[in-house]
Each structure stands twice: as C-alpha cells, then as structure tokens.
Amino acid sequence: MKNASAQLLEFSALKQLVGRWVASPMGHRELERVAPSADAAVIERVLDEVREAIEYLQAAAKPQGAAHGAAVRLRFDLPDTESAVRRLAIEGASLEAAEILLLTEMLDRASDARMILAAVGGRFPRLAARAAAIGEFRPALKELSGKILPDGTVADHASVALQRVRRDVERLKKQIHESLERFLRAHREDGILQEEFVAIRNERFVVPLVAGQQRKVEGVVHAASGSGHTLFVEPFETIQLNNDLVRLSEEEAREVHRILREMTDKLRALSPAISRAYAVLGELDLLFAKAQFALEFDCIVPRFTSGAERRLTLREARHPLLEDVLKRQRKAISPISLALDSASRTLLISGPNTGGKTVALKTVGLLALMAQAGLPVPCSEAEFPVFDQVLADIGDNQSIQESLSTFSAHITRVREMVLDVTPDSLVLLDELGRATDPEEGGALGVAVLDRFRAAGAFTLASTHLLAIKIYGANTPGVVNGSMGFDERTLQPTYVLRLGAPGKSAGLDIASRLGMPPHLIEQARAAMSSSDRDIAKFLSDLHLKLGEVEQLRHALEIERASLAQREREIAKESAQRESAKLKEIERRCDLLMTKFEEQARETIETIMQGAEQHKASERALRRVARTKREFEEELEVTVLSTQNDARQGDLQAGKPKIVEGARVRLKGVREPARVRRKLAGGIIEVEAGFMKLQVSEDDVLEVLPDTGDAGRKLPKNVSFQQGPQWSVSFSEINVIGKRAEEACDEVDKFLDSAALASVQRVRIVHGHGMGILKKAIAGLLATCPHVAAFHPAPQSEGGAGATIVELKES
Where are the alpha helices (DSSP H) in 315-388? Predict the structure, then answer.
C-alpha cells in the first residue's frame, strides 16, 4: 500500500500511542515495522490474531484460579538482547556473563509463553500456533541454570577447577591480610604509617606510609595519593604472596573465560531457534500491545468488503489521538458515523468553521490506515474496502522555500492526486477550492470531485462553497453531510449528520468570538438576498432534520420498549404453559393413586368371602369399570387443559359452524357431527348413537372433515373387534370330549381370556380315568398365558376342575 499520506494523517504518532503498551525492545522493533498493507489475506490473518489476543486479555482479567488451561497474563518486560543474539551467529565469539544471564532469562520467558499458550490452544489456536514457533530450551536452560549469579559473575560451582582456584585465592588473601596487619601493628609507634588499613593498588595489597618515611621499611612503592602526602607501599614479606595471588587471579580469569566460551558454544548450537524465539517474543509483545490498546480505547476489529459489496461504514468512530488528549483533560469526544457504498462513494461535508470537518476527514483516513496495518479501530462498527492508497490534501501546505502560496500548494497536491487516483483509492480533500475566488474555486472543485467520482474512488471532501454543495445535492452517487451547529448557543456540536449540507455560520461564529456587533450587522447587510435566503433555508432545513432525528430516536425507544414487552409476554406465556403441565401431572398422579387404591381394594375383595367365584366376577367388572373411568377422566382432564389456550381465541372469534361439520363439544369425549342449526344459537348434533341439542358456545373447536376416508381400511384388510371381558371367559367345560378336541378348545379359550384381560379361569374336565385332566395339565404347562394352575377347591369342583391363574397383559 502506498503510504504517501501516512505522515499527513499522523500515523507515526498513532504508532507511538500504541507503543505505550509495548514492553520489550524487540516489541518496539516490531512496532517500527508496522505499516498498512494492501494484501487482504495478510490483513485478515493479523486481525484474527488481534481478535484472539483481545479475548485472551479479557479472559485473563477474570478470576479463574489456577486451573489447567486458564488464561494467564504474559509479561514481556525484558532487557535488550539483540546484540547477544547477533553475536551468537559469529563463530568463535564469546558472550560475557551478563549477556548470557540476560539471554537465558529471555529464553526462560519465551518457554513460559510457549507453555502457557499451548495450554489454551483449544480456545486460542492462533496464539498457540504463534507460540509454537518457539523452540524447546528447557534442557539447555537446566544445564546453564545457576552458573551465572544475578550480579553477572560466574558462580564458584560452575566448574571444579574454578571452585578450587577461588578457594586458593581466598586463602592467599587471608594470608596477605594477616601479614599486613602484623606489619601495621609492628610499626604503629614508628610514625611512618599514614593510616592503619590495608589498601589495593595495581591489583596488589599495600599499606599507606607517610611520604619520606618509605626508606625506613623494605618494600615497593606502587602509588601515591593525590596530595602526595601518602605513599602506598608493598612490604617485601608480602611480595611473594601477592605474586601468587596475581597468578591465581589470572588462572581464575582463564577458567572463567573457558566456562563462558563453553556456555556460549552450547547456546550457539541453538542459535537459529534463539533468533526465532527472540522474534516471536517481539511479535507476541506487539500483538498483546494492540489488544491492550483496543481495550483502553474501546476498539473493535474491523471487517473488509470487496467487489460489488464494497462499503465504507463507520459507527461512532473516534480519532484516537484526539481522544487521548481529551481523556487527559477529562473531556468527552464526539464520535462520527457515516456509510458509503458502491452506489454512493462520495461524501461532501459542510458546516461551520471549528465544527470538526477536518477532524472527521482525518479520523476516516487514519482509521483506514490502522485497519490495513492490522490495528483495531476505535468504533462500535467498522467496514472498509481494501484501499491501495490513501490520497489526502489536508491543512495548509504553503512553502516559502518552494515559493508556493496556499492555493498553489493546494492545487499542486490535488493535481498529484488526480494523476494517482485509482478505483481502489481513498481520497480526502479538506476545504476543496479554497484560497481563491469562491466562484472559480467552486467550479474547479466540482470538476475535481467529478473526476474522482468517475474514477470510482471513495471520496470525502469538506467545503464552504455553494457550488459544491449544489453539486452534492444534484449528483447521483454523492451524499451531502453537515457538521452540527447549535443556533441558540452558536456552538458547534461536532456531530456529523448525513442527508443535507450545512451552513458555514461564519458571521455567527465571528459574533461569538467577540467581533463588534455593528460590523456583524454591516456584513449581514452586504450579503446578497440569495445568500441570506440560502443561509436561512439551510438553517430551517437543519431544524427540521433535528426534529426528524428526535422522532427517529423516540421511535427507536418505542421499538425497543415493544420488543421488551413481547419478550415479557412470551416469558409469561411459557410460565403459564409450564404451570398447566404441572397441573396435568398432578391430576394424573391423583387419578393413578385413586386407581391403584381401588384396584387394591378389588383384589382384596377377590380374596375374601365364601362365594369367591361371584366376588371375583364382581371385582373384575369393578376393575374394568374403574380403568375405563380413569381413562375417560384423564382424557377429559388433558383435553380441557389443552383447550384452555384455545378458548381465548374462540371468544375473540368463534369458529364457523356449518351443517355437516365435525366438532368437539365440552364434556363429550367423542367428536360429533352437526346435523342442523336451530334458532337461538342452538345446534343439533350426533355423537355416536346419541342425538343432542347444544349451544354453539359448547363447541370447543371445528375439526377437519376426513369424510369416510378415515373409516375405510386398505384393500384385503379386515378388522374384527377383540374380545372384552364377560362371564363366558371365566370358565370352560370340556367333560365328555376327546383329549385332543378338549385341548384345542382350552387353547382358544385361554387366548380369548388373555385378550379380555381375565386373570383367573376354571376348566371343568371331570374325574373319569384322569386322561383328560392329564392332557389339559400338559397343555397348561407350556401355554405362554398361564402363570400357575392348581386343582379347584371343593366349593368349585374339587379334583374335577382346574383353576388357572393367567399372566397380566
């Protein structure tokens, strides 16, 4: 993307604003490389990562304990290790201890980031994929751990040799101190000592003597004080010890160098991975800085449109640099909203001076650059085409060195824009046609705007010129807009309103700024009547637009209120339905309990009394009756509850009842058919074998008429009513029949009894020779309907009959 207007739109200042949340030097280097791109795929990829980073920071801000997979805030406050990373790539170069310490700290932080983001890869896959490029450094860090102390020195335990040398050094230092302290005690009374302490000069231990007294002791003078009154002398008795100390110090330095070289070589083996980890940390630092910027300035991730669906839509857009300034002043910013598409690509903004027209243009231009640079934008909604360049002429480009007047600089810049414009350009023109005669400037401005419109570019221009305002009102594809102005207070409102041009209000603003009233009146008198009429027309138009806006706002509130009421009604309806279902369940439970109690009483009746046969028949009839009553009551209960919701509709508009219609009546289970309509709202209906006269108010609903289709069976299909309980299914007599014939009749009898839900039957077979009894016993033993069988009691035939208990169906 061409960035010719980036400086004019203060894109560098915007990057500095984002840089407040960049913590590391590598992150700042990544920020320096941020620039708008015209590659839609690259922009979308970067913005997808920014969206995830915003969600990650929001998740990390919520209390969530230490559960695995929790979003943990990452830290990037690291010192600069760029020089150390680069030196690793140089074969033979050795890093200093402090550099290795900083490098291991950076790798440790990178490993933490890799582990933390990998744990949340399911929720934040793009962040995890970015962190996955960081290599595995834990084994190397474990090997190097603790060998360099926090102060940047190599630890004693870094090697056995270093530990031994340093132990010898400490022993020698102690010997030298003891020797020099003996020397000081011995010469305390001689007057040759300047002070009683041991000093170090030229890396050797010495004592301070009074100048001129050094000949009284044997030793080597190493230095003198600044005043010359003190000489630092090394006594002969410690020279050899100091020599040994120097030798050991050199041996220590060689061992330290060897250790550092060895540690550097271990890191050099990982040099490509370290360079990549360094880069990824910078990328992640910048990514989370963008996300934090988005949260601080209430930004969103913009969308991009293409082809015939290209749109430039901004809702409640704010200039981030202006908002930052106003935040520090504890003032609120006035957002702007606009919408352009492929059919209307040009927006003309007019209105008063100091009304915010230039800020509106800069806001649109800067937000377009931010979006294409992969930065979130401060809006509630944002859609952009992918621009190949942003062409802007904003501000006064007057140049004394180039001998350019304001108009010349303006025309020079506009000429370059006319030559560079493409259908994918965004054009921003501030005060088009300014700094010259209004008539000529207006004509030139119209020609320039028409050129940009014909090129297919999205164009935003501000103007005070009437000719350009008229062009905007009469040209298809051009939208007029105005910056708000309060006629009562003579103050700009900074609100962009689309649909009508605005008036300049120059005289009103001049009056507010203190211009003498008589000059204002003189100026008004000098205006032509057409100018005054146009100014008045625009003022009236804006008053009407304000009233329309108030009505629109009131309608929005009313619409929201109605939507809320609909939600409440739906909720109340759902609660009523739930209560009805609970009532149905309660009634069913009561009916089931009643049925079970009556069934239990019936069973007890079966088991009691001397006349068990008659009692059992009465009990079975009672069970069947109770079961039938239960089913009818249940159906009536459920139907009445389900029909409650319909009754309101029936009352509002009764169903149309015609002769021959099928209807459902209150309190009648079976559907009925209307035979004829009588006077006084009475209808004659036929329900089964019954003929009734009922009121039309008793009709619950009109059923769809299925004719006779519902009663006809498919071809070759017949229906036979199954057996119902009767006395004939409680006993069978097979006396005098052959065994085979008797078994067939008993088998059919048991099938019918089972279908009729009979629980106990008696088979009378007589005594005889026992052949018939034995055959029937064999049949009962294999019959699936039989639960048990036994000889009848004496009152029911004794051994000449068999009682059979059938299974419950």
Answer: 320-328, 357-372
